[in-house]
Design a protein that fits this description.
- By secondary structure, the protein is mostly helical.
- The chain contains 4 helices and no strands.
- Helix 2 packs antiparallel against helix 3.
- The protein is elongated and about 60 Å long.
- The relative contact order is 0.09.
Length: 109
């Protein structure tokens, strides 16, 4: 369960508690929803790798490539400034990890 699924309940509870200062505006809820979409593949991959008794690099590196491909598709459609920054940061880190993968392969050969 996520906060997004309880949006109405959270909003109503904060209103009842007279804590309008904590209410999120529509843009903030949209930003949270966008972040959840961007991070979902990472969540799935983390659960998958964590469920293996012996996770191996032979599964990690192809997974990183899949994350990069998915991320490229998402990055081009984003219009929210916060999500663009988040996406750009993730993109830089994915590129860094991919380059480490390339260097490791070269060393092995």
């Amino acid at each position: 369960m996520s906060l997004l699924e309880f949006r109405e309940s959270v909003t109503e509870t904060l209103k009842v508690m007279d804590r309008q200062d904590l209410l999120l505006c529509d843009w903030e809820w949209e930003t949270l929803a966008g972040a959840a979409v961007i991070l979902k593949p990472f969540h799935i991959l983390t659960e998958d790798l964590s469920s293996q008794y012996y996770p191996s690099l032979s599964k990690v590196f192809p997974s990183i490539i899949l994350l990069q491909d998915h991320h490229k598709e998402m990055h081009s459609t984003e219009s929210n400034d916060i999500l663009i920054m988040m996406s750009s940061s993730l993109n830089l880190n994915l590129k860094r990890i991919a380059s480490m993968n390339s260097m490791l392969i070269l060393r092995i050969q």
